[in-house]
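Why run this: before we spend reagent on co-expression, it is cheaper to look at a predicted model of the complex and decide which construct boundaries make sense. The entries below are exactly what would go into the expression plan.
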Amino acid sequence: MDYDALKERVCAANKEINRVQLAILTWGNASEVDREAGVFAIKPSGVDYDEMTPDDIPIISLETGEKLEGAMNPSSDTATHWHLYKAFPDIGGIVHTHSPYATAWAQAHRGIPCLGTTHADTFYGAVPCTRPLTQAEIEGEYELNTGKVIEEHFVNNGLKAVELPGVLVSSHAPFTWGADALKAVVNGRVLEEVAKMAATTFALNPNLGSVDQFLLDKHYLRKHGANAYYGQK
Amino acid sequence: MDYDALKERVCAANKEINRVQLAILTWGNASEVDREAGVFAIKPSGVDYDEMTPDDIPIISLETGEKLEGAMNPSSDTATHWHLYKAFPDIGGIVHTHSPYATAWAQAHRGIPCLGTTHADTFYGAVPCTRPLTQAEIEGEYELNTGKVIEEHFVNNGLKAVELPGVLVSSHAPFTWGADALKAVVNGRVLEEVAKMAATTFALNPNLGSVDQFLLDKHYLRKHGANAYYGQK
Amino acid sequence: MDYDALKERVCAANKEINRVQLAILTWGNASEVDREAGVFAIKPSGVDYDEMTPDDIPIISLETGEKLEGAMNPSSDTATHWHLYKAFPDIGGIVHTHSPYATAWAQAHRGIPCLGTTHADTFYGAVPCTRPLTQAEIEGEYELNTGKVIEEHFVNNGLKAVELPGVLVSSHAPFTWGADALKAVVNGRVLEEVAKMAATTFALNPNLGSVDQFLLDKHYLRKHGANAYYGQK
Amino acid sequence: MDYDALKERVCAANKEINRVQLAILTWGNASEVDREAGVFAIKPSGVDYDEMTPDDIPIISLETGEKLEGAMNPSSDTATHWHLYKAFPDIGGIVHTHSPYATAWAQAHRGIPCLGTTHADTFYGAVPCTRPLTQAEIEGEYELNTGKVIEEHFVNNGLKAVELPGVLVSSHAPFTWGADALKAVVNGRVLEEVAKMAATTFALNPNLGSVDQFLLDKHYLRKHGANAYYGQK
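The model came back. Tokens follow.
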């Protein structure tokens, strides 16, 4: 079995994280799953984006979460990605960053309400913030439990991962996802821009609520619904 | 009839939106009208700025709002541009972006009062924020109604489009205009910079009002009045 | 008489304003005086920084304020520069910009108190904000009166231009100066950075006062006093 | 004795300060110690980063604090670096900048509490802010006393320099350190990013406290503890 194309896409998506300034240093990682092959590829841990090559990208078993291929250690966040691929069967790529505005909302323990069409074009509702992990969750299988807390929030609140392609982990930072790794990076950019705009918006009007559901419907569905009319398709 | 020059100008103006960082991804569109020919040219929907060529630019009838020429779908905001060209017969180009500070004011449902000469040099008074669209307006011909709500605000408040080349659509984002597409981009840059300065200004002094009318007159008219003395003309 | 070297320096200083992002579009101008020759050179009005050449730089009489040489109109702010060269005989270059943070303080009608050593290294005390110009001053010789209001503030408050190389004009924007045009640009950069830091500082601690005089003395004088020991001289 | 390699590393680290935008103009300096040789190398005072070469880097005696080698004056902050190398025997490089967000916290006289994992990955607790220096300390051996006040804070509060590689000097700016000069620059970048995120976080949630100790332990120790599992080692 040959994962060259998958490794190339994941390497490119990780470099894209850095190019679009979602992460300084090594503060972000992207992965992409090949569900037929039962594997996902992910950034190696602590490697500079500029120096990374497709050969450095580890391949992980979707069944066991163990490394199948590659000389380097996978990202320390690998178990979070692994759990999310299992919890959300419709997603194809995942991105984790510490982009500054989204991270500030996560640190403030606040989800980002939908304040306008920029948000509604990508996220069909508020970008949620998880509950804090417990001491036992943190001292146990921390990265795996991070994935579980994200899944718990989506299940308990009846949220659909495909319609809401991002989350803030409390006291930590954002995860976004999409059809593939590059689309997960795009959703990470949208989330950071939305987080920045929302911070400025609340500074100008602290008592603001979410937009009306019919505006949210209009904008989300004109891009993503059955009758979408944005773009060239 | 040959629209090559118009398409080139509109293609260049759309790339300029991206170059000056008024839009990430595909979050902005520029158009320009040729009133003699009865058409306007506009960005194709969802196309990357880097990949766009003049051949991709659709030509729209000013009379019907329908596409006359071009293989690609025009911007999903085409009906807004169309209505504004009809409502404001003195403008030649229109730009729509989601630039972050102007969008934050729109999301906060606040117009931007004139707080200094930077604003007064381009906008002869506060940059207005429209009323929210109703459910019926959003669920009906949404993009056309966006144009109508902008026109309504200008008519009801006795505002002149040429003197006030921009507006914030509530819960949405800014539109700017000018003598041609490139000048509409310039006005989009001014609006974003003014929106940023105004947010910082209110953080430093929350109780501030507008500048005096005589300062507004002086700055606007030294650049735009009959006796203007700015520049080389 | 040949002003080639002066024109080259002023052209370079104006391009520097743009390179270091103190001004977008044409929102800033630099000038430099040759007191022996009795002239100063200044940016032409409304010309793009990228297109400007030394030949475009007008030469103005220090005695009359009239243009002596050059095909282009001088900056519309020429009379302000002219007055400041006469009011402050120790300065050699002047820069005016609408840099966003300094302009926000000017729009908020607040001088910038000295909050730390970054400020104290360049400005020997608060960067002052002038009183608003009166209607008569604005409707009369506006640009000249802008210079007069700056001078008035320095005279009434016993401030020395060389020790305090910048000012905020109320509802307008900053002016900075220095030994030559390039040093005035450097002081414009310092002012913008100090203005940004001070805005963040007050957000974190709204009740803050100025630093102690002995800290201000230490930092200002280690760079500028008779016993300065910063740098290579 | 030949310090060429040390000078090259210190020259590169100083240029890195500028490349990653921790300092404009000449507002930052880096040094690195060679404890076996009993010397440290540091930036020359007031020299532009672009023009600096390894030959310009002065060599200072760790025993006396005096210059041993080099034509140029060392940084005016040399005595602070000297004292810190003696006070903290486990550190190998030091960086001082006036990066804007970290400086704003220093000017606000506030340490930066640990608000999330971005912070915890590098700093094992709040980044402290020193007490203000007294008039006598400022008018005496100011730069040496700056080092002493930092040491005093760490000693009085039982803090370990290796676990907390940075500090804010009240009314002044940050110092960071690390195993060598380049790692001290990296810690300066982390501190600036953390300072920016924390300012935004408090704007969104003013009453926030620090994260739980077990989250801090988890993140700091997974990168730096005996059982660290981040990266490729």
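DSSP finds eight helices and seven strands in chain B. Chain B has a mean pLDDT of 97. Bring this page to Monday's planning discussion.
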